[in-house]
Amino acid sequence: MRFKTFYATFLVTALLGSGTMARAVSPQGSLRRPDPFARAEAFFGAGQYAPAQHLLSETLAGRDTTRLNYQDAVFYDAASALLTGQPDGPARMEDFLNRYPDHPLCVYARYYLASENYREEHFDEAVRWLDQVDIDLLRPEDRDACLYKLGYACRMTGDRDRARALFGRVAGGTSIYAEDAQLYMAIADYEAGRYEEALSGLAKLEGSPLYGTAAAYYVAHVYFDQGRFQDVVDYTHDLIITDLNYQAGLYRVVAASHSRLKDYRRAAIYWDAFEKTEGMVPTAADQYEIGFTYYALKQYAKAMPYLEKAAADTTVVGQHAAYHLAGCYLAEDAKPKALAAFHVAGQSDADTLLQEDALFHEAVLTYELSYAPFSEIIRRFTDYLAKYPDSPHARQVYNYLVTAYGETKNYAAALETLEHADLNVDYVAAAYQRVAFFRAVECFDAHDYATAASLLRQSLEYGRHDSRLASQACFWMAETLAADGNPKEAVTYYKRFLADDSVRDLQEYPYASYGLGYSYFAMNAYDAAATWFNQFAAAIPADEPAWGDARNRIGDCLFMRKEYLQAIAAYREVSEKRMADADYALFQQGFCQGLLGNHQSKIATLGRLLADYPDSDYADDALYETGRACMAGQRMAEAITWYEKVISDYPNSSYVSKALSQLGLACYNRNDAESAMKYYKRVVDEFPNSPEARSALIGIRTIYMDREDADSYFEYARSLEHQQVNLTVTEQDSLTYSVAERMYMDGRTEAAREALGRYLERWPEGAFALSAHYYLGSCCRQAGDLEAAVQHYRRVADAPRSLYSEQAVSELAQLLYEQNNDEEALKYYTQLSALAELPENMTAARLGILRTEFRLKHYEEVLRAADAVTAMQKATPAQVREARFKAASSHLAQKDTTAALALFRRLSEEALSAEGAEANFRTVDLLYATKKYKDAEQAVFDFAGKNTSQTCWTARSFIRLAEVYIATDDLFQASHTIQSVLDNYAVKDDGVLEEARKVKARIDALQPEENKQP
Q1: Deepest of 243, 553, 736, 797, by most Cβ within 10 A of its Cβ?
Q2: Are the CB atoms for 781 and 815 separated by under 8 Å?
Q3: Cα–Cα distance measured from residue 517 to residue 529, given in angstroms and rounded to the nearest whole number
Q4: pLDDT at 146 over 80
Q5: Is residue 820 helix, strand or coil?
Q6: What is the 3-state secondary structure (H, E, C) of 365-424?
């Protein structure tokens, strides 16, 4: 297409035909001119500006500025400079105008300046000079050129109405600008929406060698803009376009017309041709049109790349592209990706109707996926209602919202959202009641009893909305208070729960009686405790573990009331059913039989315990008590056998000192004084300062006295430097200690601390020194003086085994662990594992070893310690979970990713705990690290569906998901996944958002330039 005149042609035509232009416009007529000027004029007319300018110098040298030919020469000299591109050409021409404003050639001076600016595309300046040209003074052949140039310059400066009027003065004429002007008139009509005028003007160019193609191009576009899509198709059917300037555009409009006619198959053909056109650069709108065509043909995989690129656009095109991209993802069952696309469409208000629909689908899809890592379900529905309160979807959204509050497990996030809602609205208040309740139960499971109680009280405030749930809240309030050491108040809530007959079908109902039993037991109200334990046992099947526990507690209540026969009956029910804690039931049964004097039955019962439960925690107890029963029945030889078995089978048992002491007594009773002396001296040597040692000293003294060998006794006593055998000193020692001990037992810890301190100052190695150190450690710990507590516990722990050793070592290890003194804590946890007789202390020892070895990064030891914890028969789920998590982390630290992944996967089945949530993230992280991207993506979605309150790990999983998408070149999903974290994660200072921003920067750097948002 020719949009500008040919400048050189115009100049030759405008200036000369045999050099007559000047005379044609001059008022002086024909004048005789000197030869140099005439020759210069001829050269100028022939376009030989340099020779002309040289000859003109002779005329200008005459300096007679009044002569007309001199002024003409100034003009031609300036014009030659202008036309040959000399830098001072425009200035010299303007100088001519300033010096000779009335000269006849001024019209052409202005025209030349306008034409030069036109050529340089300085259209504002061109218009300024052209507006000063008196067109009527131009030669006829120059007038159309001037009008055309002015029209084109006006068009380019935005004055399109004036441009069209000027083109109208040229169009229809015979000049070389007529067709150019005709085309621009039609384009102006098209752009202004005057479609019929445009078509009429374009029709005049049909068949034009120069503009026929351009006219056809614009006719097709006019039809398209008129909505005459079939006319576009028909008109272009046999049209052959070879000009690449128009080919791609024509393919575009034909493809779009087929799309509007819903003939997507043919639309796809033309879009394909469009894409293959040389030099074609598709716009975001093109990408959307192509993507939508394939979407309509249900070729979703083919549509996605186009729609993804178009979705980066910030106009309505990007919004529609994201919306239909979501449709593609849904068709491919990629709902999480569809969710992201609906989110993008919903963020734009370019098309408000589509925005509303996208936000609705985003909220519904969030609900369907149970996809609420950042409380999106609740927030999206509430945000939707706030923005579209009169939406036709409103009722449906309300139903979703109420259900979502009931079903979501991310109670912490839901609660935070509800606290900003209007709790005066019934459905919100009802939801708040439920969410506060379930969050409280979560806190209870995490042993956060203070928070649990607070939330349960808040739930009860809105109990009117769901009375059944309010009763459940009473039950859990009772459980919380009982667990937190407040049994008296717990009783009130248990009874309030039981008073509601409508909750009899709840699984908690019988357990309220169970809780009441324990609460009364804790208050030493054994009659009431037994009543409630009986009621509980009668309400549940006898094969449930809790039934056996309840019967044991009934036995304990009867035992504490000294009703031993009834206690035996209760214990026997448990032991005969071989239920959990049957070994305890057998031991207590035998112990009661002994108290009743039925020693043979006691021996038989304890024998059953040892035979049926050889690994029982009560095995050493049973051996010792069997020996006592034999002694009570005067069966000394058998008693000796049982006591020796205690010593040989359980050398670390606290019963060893007692068994040795009893062996001494048994041998003495059998008149075997030598053996008795041997055992008594072992007690004194191996367990100095113990109560048994004091008894043994009395036995030794008795044997020496029986021998009438007092001197030997005194010699032996003097050899015992660590023993206080002076009666007077012993009496003082005992009395001083008794006063301090009484203060401690009465709970007067400050007074006890002072008294125990005074005792140790006076008798640092006294008979009660170890017990004093233990009690002092306890007092210091209660007072917050942990360093002093450690010192006192260490004295007991490092001494030979005593009655206080086990508990002192347990508390010392815990204090050292809390002070991050891991090396020493490990030492005492290891000692505790050898000493422990109480199950809870063995559990503490194994867990302590696990935790300290882990903090010390002794990963091989951690793996062994984890096995020991998981092997415990009564390990809680939380303890097993912790052990497995630390084992998995140890495998990971040792680069054994296979073993680590297997354990993390196992742990990830549960996501409510901190370990379970982190295990889900570690699973995702390992799958990503090993390039198992599909598995990693699915693991993230599975984790999101578990709705944990541990949102830190959920957020980090989504950051890793964004990196998965980066690795798989899905930058659309990567961008919107990471944006979801940035928009929704609430914690600002835990490093998660900083990590997310770094990944976002990586994604932005990878985006193609055309997809980057401003």
Answers
A1: 797
A2: yes
A3: 4
A4: yes
A5: coil
A6: HHHHCCCCCCCHHHHHHHHHHHHCCCCCCHHHHHHHHHHHHHHCCCHHHHHHHHCCCCCC
Which helix (H) or strand (E) covers residue 833, if one does?
helix 822-835
Name the least confident of 236-245, 465-474, 786-795, 928-937: 236-245
Task: Give mean pLDDT, residues 98-107.
Answer: 92
CA-CA distance, 94 to 100, in Å (whole number)?
A: 10
pTM for the whole structure: 0.57
Question: Taken in order 41, 42, 43, 47, is the CA torsion positive or negative?
Answer: positive
Amino acid at 253: V
Which DSSP string do the residues of 682-700 spell out, in sequence order? Answer: HHHHHSTTSHHHHHHHHHH
Q: Which is higher by pLDDT, 477 or 693?
A: 477
Q: Is the separation of the CB atoms in 535 and 513 below 8 Å?
A: yes
**What's the burial of 596, exposed, middle or buried (CB within 10 Å: 0-12/13-18/19+)?**
middle
pLDDT the model gives residue 541: 85
DSSP letter for each residue of 980-1014: HHHHH---SSSSHHHHHHHHHHHHHHHS-GGG---
Tens digit of each residue's pLDDT (9 = 90 or more) over 163-209 = 999 999 999 888 899 999 999 999 999 999 999 999 999 999 888 88
- At residue 379 the predicted structure's pLDDT band, cuts being 50, 70 and 90, is confident
Find out whether 373 and 408 touch, Cβ atoms under 8 Å: no
Q: Residues 608, 597: contact at Cβ < 8 Å?
A: no
Of 35-39, 78-82, 231-235, which range is least confident? 35-39
Sign of CA dihedral 517, 520, 521, 525: negative
Q: Which of 277, 233, 240 is nearest to 254 (CA)?
A: 233
Paired tokens of 981: 């974290």
Q: Which residues contact 122 (CB under 8 A, 6 or more apart)?
A: none
